[in-house]
Amino acid sequence: MVDAVSSAVRAHLEGERDRVRGQLRELHADDDSFDEGFADTSQVTAERGEIEALSASLTETLHDLDDALVKLDAGTYGECERCGAEIGDARLEAMPAARLCIACASNKR
């Protein structure tokens, strides 16, 4: 049963990783879509800033997913990095790459 759960978790994490990679590819493909001759360069600058912020967030998520897969292989997936307690199933379902239990994430520990 543990192997089935582990396989399902791995499939979910890998699916999320593929989705995030796809989003990053789309963002970088759009980098060339800005028209340097566009009259409103402040709009172009703002849009580039938004894309850079989104790209940074997606890159961080990708690293978290990769780390979660490493933890799965090591048998430590679902353990809080701060206190060592088990991260609840509901939290892991909502955030598969969660590093902290809800108490530590809320700074209650």
Can you walk through the features of this model?
The structure is a single chain. The protein is mostly helical and 109 residues long. It folds into 2 domains: 76 residues; 32 residues, no CATH class. The longest helix has 34 residues. The chain contains 4 helices and no strands. Helix 1 runs antiparallel to helix 2. It is elongated and about 55 Å long.
Helix content: 55-70%
The main β sheet shows up as: none
Q: How far apart, in Å, are the first and last alpha carbons? A: 32 Å
Helix and strand pattern: HHHH
Rg over alpha carbons: 18 Å
**Overall mean confidence score, pLDDT:** 87
Q: Multimeric state of these chains?
A: single chain
Count of separate structural domains: 2
Number of helices: 4
Helix/sheet category: mainly alpha
**Strand runs, count:** 0
Stretches where pLDDT is under 50 for at least 5 consecutive residues are: none
Percent range for β-strand residues: under 5%
What characteristic shape results from the CA principal axes? Answer: elongated
